[in-house]
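Design request, tokens follow.
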């Protein structure tokens, strides 16, 4: 049996959730996801990717469906990829101050009772995905400082606290990329930062 120390030396199992719902490869989120994957693999980490734009994801409509419905094959595959990972990288654009609807539907489908949280039990610590860490990368048109200090980074805090922490995922770090439609040199600097984070699996 491989010890945890040996596995750490061998690299981490990482799953990248590319949450941009537009499949157009020109979207910067896709470049961030591809850059992270490439650099992490070069550093010896094992990487799988979930591209929300390419997934068939239905919206949940009832509590009964969320608690007792049968996940689709697409959702089960996503659950298996997340279960196998020790580190999650979640990348999305800020739309109307929040996650894109398709990414929110993805989390609602995947993080069900019995998989991400305890089923039928009221507790402040229901998480079943303990032992995993995460990084959230958010792109936006506004300056990142405005989003963080004026809008209080509310969608980021909600994802971190109400979904990831609640499921037991900790620590959760974030990168906020503002003025994403600005200069090419600024975007390249961010890609360099992402390369560094990927090598460290952070």
């Amino acid at each position: 049996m491989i010890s945890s120390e040996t596995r750490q030396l061998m690299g981490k199992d990482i799953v990248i959730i590319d949450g941009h719902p537009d499949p157009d490869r020109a979207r910067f989120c896709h470049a961030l996801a591809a850059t992270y994957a490439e650099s992490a693999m070069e550093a010896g980490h094992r990487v799988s990717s979930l591209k929300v734009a390419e997934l068939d994801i239905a919206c949940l409509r009832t509590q009964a469906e969320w608690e007792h419905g049968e996940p689709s094959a697409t959702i089960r595959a996503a659950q298996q990829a997340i279960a196998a990972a020790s580190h999650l990288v979640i990348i999305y654009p800020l739309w109307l101050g929040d996650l894109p609807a398709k990414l929110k539907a993805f989390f609602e489908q995947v993080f069900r009772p019995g998989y991400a949280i305890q089923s039928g039990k009221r507790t402040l610590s229901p998480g079943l995905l303990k032992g995993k860490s995460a990084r959230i990368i958010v792109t936006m048109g506004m300056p990142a400082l405005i989003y963080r200090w004026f809008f209080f980074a509310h969608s980021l805090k909600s994802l971190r606290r109400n979904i990831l922490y609640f499921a037991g995922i900790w620590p959760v770090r974030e990168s906020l990329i503002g003025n994403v439609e600005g200069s090419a040199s600024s975007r390249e600097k961010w890609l360099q930062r992402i390369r560094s984070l990927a090598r460290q699996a952070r």
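Comment from the thread starter after seeing the answer: thanks! The longest strand covers residues 87-93.
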